[in-house]
Amino acid sequence: MALAERLAIPLHGLPVDILAAHEGRLSQPSERVREASGSPGVAEAAALAQAEILIGGHAILLIDKRRSASATCALACIRHEAERP
Predict the structure, then answer these.
(1) How does DSSP assign 53-73, residue by residue?
(2) How many other CB atoms sit within 10 Å of the CB of residue 51?
(3) Residue 80: predicted pLDDT
(4) For range 7-19, the mean pLDDT
(5) SS3 category, 83
(6) Cβ of 29: how many Cβ atoms within 10 Å?
(7) What is the pLDDT of residue 32?
(8) Other C-beta atoms lying within 10 Å of the C-beta of residue 40
(9) Who's near 26: CB < 8 A, 6+ residues apart?
């Protein structure tokens, strides 16, 4: 929350059922994470779900889960075909 506030960007939370619905699309599903959160992945599932919620369409993982001692992240995007005249 502090990082989102410092960067002046919105912070979105997602319910576990939305995260769990992306199980088949995760690069590294984890039973340990499922036991702790109810979803086999959080960072990748959240990136996919939030991209689809904000933009619409089918999201793909651009960068799979990355971990450090204090954070975990993933990046998803929506591919749009360029409009042709």
Answers:
(1) HHH-S-EEEEEEEEE-SS-EE
(2) 20
(3) 66
(4) 94
(5) coil
(6) 16
(7) 95
(8) 21
(9) 40, 41, 44, 45
Residues across the chain: 85
pLDDT at 51: 92
For 10-25, give the DSSP string: ------HHHHHTTGGG
Question: What is the rounded distance in angstroms from the CA atom of residue 68 to the CA atom of residue 79?
Answer: 28
Whole-Å CA distances, 24 to 5, 18, 20, 45? 32, 13, 9, 10
User: What is the CB neighbour count within 10 angstroms for residue 16?
Assistant: 13
Return the amino acid letter for 22: H
For residue 82, give the amino acid letter.
A
User: Which residues neighbour 1 within 8 Å (Cβ) at sequence distance 6 or greater?
Assistant: 11
Describe the chain by its helix, strand, coil percentages, rounded to 5. Answer: 40, 20, 40
